[in-house]
């Protein structure tokens, strides 16, 4: 096993839901006034690499209406614990006040991201 895989497996074992800020009653994302999508992954993760252009396009297409943040949890292990990440990629959808609305893991395409926002009450269009 590569050292990155060993480090990730150690991270997964160390991360417990009770360590996340949201489990402690706080939000790890400050309210920004607009909905916020946080994608937690790693630069060397294949599904994460596939999502990068999708996230970049969302950030550009909906600037000022939606914030998009990518966090590399292999480079920022404290962030993985802070967000309670157990698998990558993980996407967390926050409202404009920083309240977590929905969380999912695995690759997700643009249409599914926008459909999720719509189910959560936010209309961005395709």
From TrEMBL:
One of its GO terms (biological process) is cell redox homeostasis. It comes from the Bacteria. PROSITE patterns: THIOREDOXIN_2 (PS51352). One of its GO terms (cellular component) is cytosol. One of its GO terms (molecular function) is protein-disulfide reductase activity. Residues 10-122 form the Thioredoxin domain. InterPro entries: Thioredoxin-like_sf, Thioredoxin_domain. Transmembrane segments: none annotated. PANTHER family: GEO12009P1. This is Thioredoxin. It comes from Geoalkalibacter ferrihydriticus DSM 17813.
């Amino acid at each position: 096993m590569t050292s990155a895989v060993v480090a990730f497996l150690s991270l997964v074992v160390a991360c417990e839901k009770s360590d996340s800020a949201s489990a402690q009653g706080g939000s790890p994302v400050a309210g920004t006034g607009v909905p916020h999508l946080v994608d937690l992954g790693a630069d060397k993760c294949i599904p994460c690499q596939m999502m990068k252009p999708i996230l970049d396009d969302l950030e550009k297409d909906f600037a000022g209406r939606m914030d998009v943040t990518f966090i590399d949890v292999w480079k920022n292990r404290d962030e993985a614990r802070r967000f309670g990440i157990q698998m990558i990629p993980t996407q967390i959808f926050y409202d404009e006040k920083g309240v977590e609305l929905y969380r999912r893991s695995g690759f997700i395409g643009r249409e599914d991201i926008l459909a999720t926002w719509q189910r959560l009450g936010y209309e961005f269009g395709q």
